[in-house]
Amino acid sequence: MAAATSLYSILPTTGATFTSGEGVWLETDQGEKFLDFTAGIAVNSLGHCHPHLVETLKKQSEQLWHISNLFQVKGQSELADRLTANTFADKVFFTNSGVEAMECAIKTARHYHFANSEAERFEIITFKGAFHGRSTATIAAGGQEKYIEGFGPKAPGFIQVDLNDVEALKEAISDRTAALLIEPIQGEGGLRYVSTEFLKTLREICNETGALLIFDEIQCGVGRTGKLFAHEWSGVTPDIMAVAKGIGGGFPLGACLATEEAAQSMVPGTHGTTFGGNPLAMSVGNAVLDVVLEDGFLENVQDVALLLRQGLAELTDTYPDIIEEIRGQGLMIGIKCKTPNMELLGAMRDEKFLAVPAGDNVIRLLPPLTLTKDEARDGLARIKNALNTVKK
Ligand SMILES: *Cc1c(COP(=O)(O)O)cnc(C)c1O
């Protein structure tokens, strides 16, 4: 099923391909340089070919690639200890992707109730506009018809309600509810705003009913918003959390984090993975955290994000017919467009500036977290040029 040409080809006219990258820059085989505010969809959290990641992966590749979870894998306990020391969680299960982290989260929530002799509690409530991955279970969880259609009966056990609608949520809760599942900031759905109040209400409902709260921080986590995890802005903690994308800095890596209580029945053998937690991924994951947990790193993300936001606010005032509003947090920014987002995205590409489309007619800016203020200003100048093109 490998596509000969990318489904969403960012370079449709020239047919060029990207062959190298450094920091925020991508270079084509024809020597053209692009300012990359996609970061591989929030994956290259430290930019392309960060020296510390390159060195770590080189070194690990000469020592050990894979032994399987039959054995203790060096690096797993180190990465798990660092993740739990810096979050609500006590337990970590490593995966190779976001969707596997989500599958683990869903299974953990259901198994928790099963082990508590409440096997009938399997329903998971999710929210409109959500995206949780492309497996048969997670397309049902995301609830978007465009991803569900054509793939057989929708997996049962997922109910969707409107985002920020407390009444609808309360109506959907029943004695079958196993968990509430939400992205603290929606990625693919268009960075729709989730209020702190709403997250607090979810936590309260879970505390009252015994349902578990699951956060999908696959896109908004690992420093993207200027905190290690986006939910820290709200002060609300989940019972289970799916992480991926930025944690591997470009190497396939995901993780499902949980409290001791939520994960108590997930003993070795209940769930499993062959590749998950392999030495290569562990070494890179640890190297990403070396940088992200450095003193001042997240503050710098917030500073650069503020500069970008101020620049975008000015552009919103200057081009009110094109930009409706700016959304998001930290370096996860959404430009909600009035004109078709793909048109502005094309004009940006002509300025050699790369960004990501999202639902709700939004353009996502997801630059590497290592973005400097000068690079942010460079990006703003290119966005302005693109806006001028669209205006004409
Ligand atoms: C990307 C993403 C996923 C799926 O991750 P994959 O690595 O593509 O499987 C799930 N949830 C969110 C919020 C995402 O952004």
Sketch the major β-sheet. 7 strands, mixed
| Overall shape | globular
Strand order, sheet with most strands:
4-10-9-8-7-5-6
What is the C-alpha radius of gyration, as a whole number of Å? 21 Å
Number of strands: 15
**What is the fourth-level CATH superfamily of the domain at 73-289?**
Type I PLP-dependent aspartate aminotransferase-like (Major domain)
Percent helix among the residues? Answer: 25-40%
Mean pLDDT: 95
Describe this structure in words.
Helix content is 36%, strand content 18%. By secondary structure, it is α/β, with parallel strands linked by helices. The chain has a domain at 73-289: Aspartate Aminotransferase, domain 2. The strands form 3 sheets. It has a 7-stranded mixed sheet with strand order 4-10-9-8-7-5-6, with helices on both faces. A 4-stranded mixed sheet has the order 1-2-3-13. Helix 11 (341-350) packs across helix 12 (373-391). The relative contact order is 0.16. The structure holds pyridoxal-5'-phosphate. Pyridoxal-5'-phosphate (PLP) is lined by residues 97-99, 102, 131-133, 183, 187-188, 216, 218-219, 244-245.
